[in-house]
Each structure stands twice: as C-alpha cells, then as structure tokens.
Amino acid sequence: MEKEFMQYMTHNNLSSNTIKSYLFTMKHFCKQYDLEKITKKDLMKYKTELIENYRPQTVNLRLRALNCYLEMVHKEKLKMPAVKVQNKTFLENVISEADYEYFKKKLKKNDKFWYFVIRFMAATGARVSELLSIKAEHVKLGYLDLYSKGGKIRRCLAVEGIGKEIRHR
After folding, report:
1. Total domains present in the chain
2. Tell me: the pLDDT tens digits for 88-127?
C-alpha cells in the first residue's frame, strides 16, 4: 500500500513534505482500521477521534490524506468533507482606546518622531515594513500607496511637516 500510495502522490506532483505527512496519516489510520476493508463508518469514527484530539487544521490535513488515498483506490464516494474553521472576527492583545490616547499624549510631548510612527500605524493599519518603506519622495508627492494582501491599494496622505521630523532622525 505504502509504495503505491507514494507513487500516486509523486505522480500527482505533491511535495515531499505533503507525501511524508500523508504517509504518516495512513500509518496512523492503519493502527486502528483495515485499509483493505475501509468503510464509511470507520472513516467517520476516525474523523470524530481526530476532532476530539486535534486542532481543525490538523484534522483537515489528515482528512485530505485519507481522501487522496480514497481517490487512488477509486473509492471517491467515501471521501469526507473538511471541518469548517471559524475565523476570529476580533484581534487579541489590543490596547484600549484610553491607553492609546495616553501613550499618544506622552509621545507628542516628548518624542515627535515616535508620535508620528504610532499615529501613522494606528490611522492607516500599516505594517512596520510598510512604515519603513516611506521615502522623502512620498512626502513631497503628498501620498504613499500601500499594497495589501490581495492586491488592494490604500492611499495614505503625507504631510510636509512630518517629513521634516523624519529627516532629522
């Protein structure tokens, strides 16, 4: 089984890491169930065990491995759907509005450069790498285009006075 499955995965251009992971899953499955007499009931029982013991990403990886094997042996009807992963719609470890205002106020008095950095990042949602990409030309132009994931563009307006503060650092 292992040799044929490995050839099948290689033929389908799966990466070596994926092949190793899928083979590990098949060995894990075979410790409890018979691959020659694989049933929907066994597959569902295995899926339940995975859900009870692993994170959804791991469960889905193992299910993809089993589904790949089922394709190889032409038992596509037994394939199992992935577990749905609910993404968090909130951020963790975010400072409160009051802490942000206090922080901003202190920086404005003591260090205008860091005040700008914090204001820019909070106002635009820019990453540190995007902040580091700001050039004097952007200030002269009056804006900076930030390219986000998915090819979206965010235009951030630049103010001349802030540019002077950056150049003095």
Report:
1. 2
2. 666 677 888 898 899 889 999 998 888 988 888 888 778 8
Burial class (CB in 10 A: 0-12, 13-18, 19+), 3: exposed
Question: How long a stretch of residues is the chain?
Answer: 169
Give the structural domain span for 102: 97-167
The predicted pLDDT at position 74 comes to: 93
Please tell me the pTM assigned to this model: 0.52
pLDDT of residue 157: 78
Q: What is the pLDDT of residues 74-99, one digit of tens each?
A: 999 999 999 987 776 666 778 888 98
DSSP label at 150? G
What phi and psi, each to the nearest 5 degrees, are found at residue 120? -60, -50
**Dihedral sign (CA 78, 75, 35, 31):** negative
Q: In this structure, what token pair is assigned to residue 15?
A: 């990466």
How many of the other CB atoms lie within 10 Å of CB of 101? 11
| Residue in the structure block whose two tokens are 């990453």 | 127
Listing DSSP states for 68-87 in one string gives HHHHHTT-GGG--PPPP-PP
**Are 74 and 7 contained in the same domain?**
yes
d(CA 91, CA 107): 24
SS3 22: helix
Q: In the chain, where do the E strands start and end? A: 143-147, 153-157
